[in-house]
Write a structure and sequence with these properties.
The structure holds two protein chains of two kinds.
Chain A lengths: L16 H32 L3 H6 L12 H9 L2 H31 L6 H13 L4 H10 L7 H4 L6 H12 L3 H9 L4 H12 L1 H17 L2 H6 L8 H10 L1 H7 L1 H7 L4 H36 L2
Helix pairs in contact in A: 1-16, 3-16, 4-8, 4-11, 4-13, 8-11, 9-10, 11-16, 13-16
Chain B lengths: L1 H7 L7 H8 L2 H7 L1 H23 L13 H4 L6 H8 L1 H21 L1 H12 L3 H12 L6 H12 L5 H10 L12 H26 L3 H9 L4 H26 L6 H7 L5 H4 L2 H11 L3 H28 L7
Classes of the chains: A mainly alpha, B mainly alpha.
Chain lengths: ~300, ~325
C-alpha cells in the first residue's frame, strides 16, 4: 500500500507539507480499510488450498507453500456440499425469476401517471412497509398454505420487496413517454408496450434488482432453517453452517476418510466449504457492480 | 377507486388522447386498459395472500391459539398474552439487550460510512478510489453464515489467527465468541465490517452532485482542506445523513435476527437474547404461538410508531421525510 499520493491534477494548487501528510494518511487508512475487508477472504482461500501440516505449523499465510486439493475433494465427497450448491443455484434462479416477474408486472401499471386506483394500491403497499404480521403469523399462514418443506415457502413470501418495486416503478416512470405514445398510435395494447417497449429499455434496473433478489436467495439461511425439514432440500448456507459450527458432526462424517487418509483436514475443509459458498457471489459481483450503485442511488432518491 | 377518479378526472394533459381517456369513467378506463389490471393482478394477490393474511393472523395474539381448534375456533383471551409478556422478567432483559445493541450500532456503526465517504472524497487518484470502493462493497453481498464462519475461523481461542496474534502480544487470549460481555461488541463489529463500505454509496452519490468548481473557487480563495469539508462537503450530505439517521432510529428494535441467531450460543445467551430471537424460540421452537405473536405485535407496533415519529421530526426539521 505504498501508493504515491501525489497525483498530477493536485499540482494545480500548491499543497502545504501538512496537507501532503494528511493526504498520505488518508491513502494509508483507506488502504488498511480495503485490506481488512479482503484479508479474511484471502486467508481462507489460501488455507483451503493448503495442507493440514502447513495450517497447523504456520499461523498466517496468503500463499500456501504446498498446494493441495484434498480439502476440496473431501468437502465434495463427504460434506454434501455439492448437493447444497445445486439446491442453492436452483433456488436462486427460480426465486429471482419469480420475483422479477411479479415485481416488474406490478410496478408497470403503477408507473402510469393516470392509472386509476394507483393511490389506493400504493397505500396498500406502504402499509406493509410500516407494519407486518411478523414471524409467527407468517409461519402459521405458510404452514396453512401447505408450503412447509418446499422451496415455495422461501420464494412465495418474498415475491415483491416494496423497496425494490418502488425503484422499478421510478425507473419505468422516467422512461420517455413519446415511445409509449408512438406504439399506441400503431395500435399496440398495454401488454405489447410493456413487453416490447418498456422491458427492453429497462435492462439496468432489471440487472440491479435481479442482483438484490438473487443475493437475498443465495444468502438466505433463516427461512430455509425454519421451513425446510428434508436435508435433501437444504441450500448451501445450511450445509455450511452445520459444517463450520458442528465440529463433532464433521468428525463423525470424517470417519471413512480418516481410515483412508489419516487425520481429517478439519480446518482446511471448513475453509474450502466457506470458499465454495462465497465463490458464486464473488464471480458475479464484478459484472453487476456498475448496475447496483445506480440501483441504490435511484432508491435513495425516493426511499 | 371513485376517489381517485375525482382527483384525477380533470387533469389536463398536453396530449389530446390522454385527455379523452381522463374524461372517461373509471369503468371505461379499466376496460380500455384491461391489460394493465391484468399485469397488476399477480402482485395484488401476492400482497393479499402473503402480507395481509399474516397481518390478519395477528388475531391469535388476542386468543389462546391451539392448532387443533384452528384460528377461529380458539377462545379469545383479550390482552392476556400481552400482560404476560410484559410481566415476565425476560421482557426487561430483551429490552436491555435489543436497545444495547442498537444504541451501540447507532454510536459506532452509523458514523462509519460517513467518515469513510469523507475519506474517499479526498482521494484525487480515481484508480485508487475505484479499487478501494470495489473491495469495501464486497462484504455486503456475503451471507451472515459466511461472516459467522469467517469470525469463528479467525477469532476462536484454539487456532484463530486473531487470538494467536493477541496471545503473542499480551500473553492471554480474548474469548470473543463465547463470553457474554463481548457479545454486543462482536455483533456491532461484524456489522461495521460488513456494511460500512456499502453504506458509503448513498453518501458518495450525494457528493457526486457537488459542483467541483465550488471546491476550486474556495481553494482559490484560500480555503484549506478542513474549511472545504466543513462548508462544502458536509452541507452536501447533511440531508442524506439526517434521512439515514431517521431510518436508523425508526429501526431501533430491529437488530437483525439472522446475525444474532448465528452468533448466539449457550455461553453468551444472557447478552444475546433479543426480541426477535425470543419470538423465534418461544414461537417456532416451543409452539407458544399466541404468546410470541403478542411479543411480535408489540415489536411491530413500537417500530411503526418510531418510524412515523422519526418521519414527522424530519419534516419538522425541514427535510423531505420518507413517506
Amino acid at each position: 500500500m505504498a501508493k504515491e499520493p501525489k497525483s498530477k491534477s493536485g499540482a494545480k494548487v500548491k499543497k502545504s507539507l501538512a496537507d501532503q501528510i494528511i493526504d498520505v494518511i488518508i491513502y494509508v487508512v483507506l488502504g488498511l480499510v480495503a485490506l481488512s475487508t479482503v484479508l479474511p477472504f484471502l486467508y481462507v482461500i489460501a488455507g483451503s488450498f493448503a495442507t493440514d501440516k502447513e495450517l497447523t505449523e504456520k499461523a498466517f499465510f496468503i500463499i500456501p507453500e504446498v498446494w493441495s486439493l484434498n480439502a476440496y475433494k473431501y468437502a465434495i465427497n463427504t460434506a454434501n456440499i455439492l448437493r447444497g450448491l445445486r439446491n442453492s443455484i436452483f433456488l436462486t434462479a427460480l426465486g429471482t425469476f419469480m420475483c422479477m416477474l411479479f415485481s416488474l408486472t406490478f410496478a408497470y401499471p403503477l408507473s402510469k401517471p393516470d392509472f386509476r386506483g394507483k393511490n389506493w394500491i400504493m397505500n396498500m403497499v406502504i402499509v406493509t412497509m410500516l407494519f407486518s404480521g411478523g414471524m409467527i403469523p407468517s409461519y402459521l399462514v405458510i404452514t396453512a398454505y401447505g408450503l412447509r418443506d418446499t422451496w415455495w415457502a422461501l420464494v412465495l413470501p418474498a415475491l415483491i420487496n416494496p423497496f425494490n418495486m418502488i425503484i422499478i416503478k421510478k425507473f419505468f416512470s422516467d422512461l420517455p413517454r413519446e415511445l409509449d405514445e408512438a406504439s399506441y398510435m400503431d395500435g399496440a395494447t398495454d401488454l405489447q408496450v410493456f413487453t416490447r417497449v418498456a422491458l427492453p429499455l429497462s435492462k439496468p434496473v432489471i440487472a440491479s434488482i435481479s442482483l438484490f433478489y438473487g443475493v437475498g436467495f443465495w444468502n438466505d439461511y433463516f427461512n430455509a432453517m425454519i421451513y425446510l425439514k428434508t436435508p435433501e432440500k437444504y441450500p448451501i448456507q445450511i450445509q455450511l453452517r452445520s459444517i463450520i459450527l458442528l465440529t463433532s458432526q464433521i468428525n463423525e462424517m470424517a470417519m471413512d476418510y480418516y481410515d483412508m487418509n489419516g487425520a481429517p483436514p478439519d480446518k482446511a475443509v471448513k475453509m474450502a466449504c466457506t470458499v465454495i459458498a462465497t465463490m458464486p457471489i464473488l464471480i458475479v459481483y464484478p459484472f453487476v457492480q456498475k448496475y447496483f450503485t445506480k440501483g441504490v442511488m435511484v432508491g435513495a432518491v425516493k426511499g | 377507486m371513485a376517489k381517485t377518479k375525482k382527483q384525477k378526472g380533470y387533469v389536463t394533459l398536453s396530449d389530446g388522447t390522454t385527455v379523452k381517456i381522463n374524461r372517461k369513467s373509471t369503468w371505461a378506463y379499466m376496460v380500455q386498459h384491461k391489460w394493465l389490471y391484468f399485469l397488476l393482478l399477480p402482485g395484488f394477490l401476492y400482497f393479499i395472500l402473503f402480507r395481509y393474511v399474516p397481518m390478519g393472523g395477528l388475531v391469535i395474539a388476542f386468543k389462546n391459539y391451539s392448532p387443533f381448534l384452528s384460528i377461529w375456533g380458539s377462545p379469545w383471551c383479550g390482552f392476556d398474552n400481552f400482560t404476560r409478556f410484559f410481566d415476565t422478567p425476560d421482557f426487561w432483559k430483551l429490552f436491555k439487550n435489543t436497545l444495547g445493541i442498537s444504541m451501540l450500532q447507532l454510536f459506532l456503526f452509523f458514523p462509519a460510512p460517513i467518515i469513510l465517504s469523507l475519506f474517499l472524497n479526498e482521494v484525487r487518484h480515481s484508480g485508487y478510489k475505484r479499487v478501494v470502493q470495489t473491495l469495501v462493497y464486497i462484504p455486503h453481498f456475503v451471507s451472515w453464515v459466511i461472516v459467522a464462519s469467517l469470525t469463528y475461523q479467525l477469532f476462536n481461542v484454539t487456532d484463530g489467527i486473531v487470538n494467536i496474534i493477541i496471545e503473542a502480544i499480551t500473553g492471554s487470549t480474548v474469548d470473543v465468541l463465547s463470553k457474554s460481555s463481548n457479545f454486543w461488541g462482536l455483533i456491532v463489529g461484524q456489522v461495521i465490517w460488513k456494511e460500512t463500505g456499502y453504506g458509503t454509496i448513498i453518501f458518495l452519490a450525494a457528493l457526486a452532485g457537488v459542483d467541483q468548481e465550488m471546491y476550486e473557487a474556495a481553494r482559490v480563495d484560500g480555503a484549506g482542506r478542513w474549511r472545504l469539508m466543513w462548508h462544502i462537503t458536509l452541507p452536501a450530505i447533511k440531508g442524506t445523513i439526517i434521512m439515514m439517521l431517521i431510518m436508523r432510529v425508526g429501526g431501533l428494535l430491529n437488530t437483525g435476527y439472522e446475525q444474532i441467531f448465528l452468533m448466539r450460543n449457550d455461553l453468551n445467551v444472557s447478552a444475546a437474547e433479543v426480541f426477535d430471537t425470543y419470538i423465534y424460540t418461544r414461537g417456532i421452537e416451543q409452539g407458544q404461538y399466541s404468546f410470541s405473536s403478542a411479543a411480535g405485535m408489540f415489536k411491530s407496533l413500537v417500530g411503526m410508531i418510531m418510524v412515523l415519529t422519526a418521519d414527522r421530526v424530519a419534516k419538522w426539521m425541514g427535510e423531505s421525510g420518507l413517506y
